[in-house]
Write a structure and sequence with these properties.
about 70 residues; OB fold (Dihydrolipoamide Acetyltransferase, E2P); 5 strands
Length: about 70
């Protein structure tokens, strides 16, 4: 997948720092029963992301580049 997105559920979130810069490790569970772990800067994930939340995972060249909360339905 060059560019794309998939729905997932957050399985686990672990914040950490690299040289003082905040990052987060996120484990994601997809509907097809696959899992994926991603390590991103905090600017690429929603603030206060928690396990159990449904999210949209954005990919570029098969690499997770951002995680977003699902927009709320009206």
């Amino acid at each position: 997948m060059v560019l794309g997105e998939r729905d997932a559920v957050v399985a686990e979130v672990q914040p950490y720092e690299i040289h003082g810069s905040p990052h987060v490790k996120v484990a994601l569970a997809f509907a097809d029963h696959t899992f994926l772990a991603a390590q991103l800067g905090t600017e690429s994930v929603p603030q206060d992301l928690r396990a159990g939340e449904p999210v949209v995972v954005r990919f570029a060249m098969s690499v997770v580049v951002a995680i977003e909360r699902r927009p709320e339905s009206p």
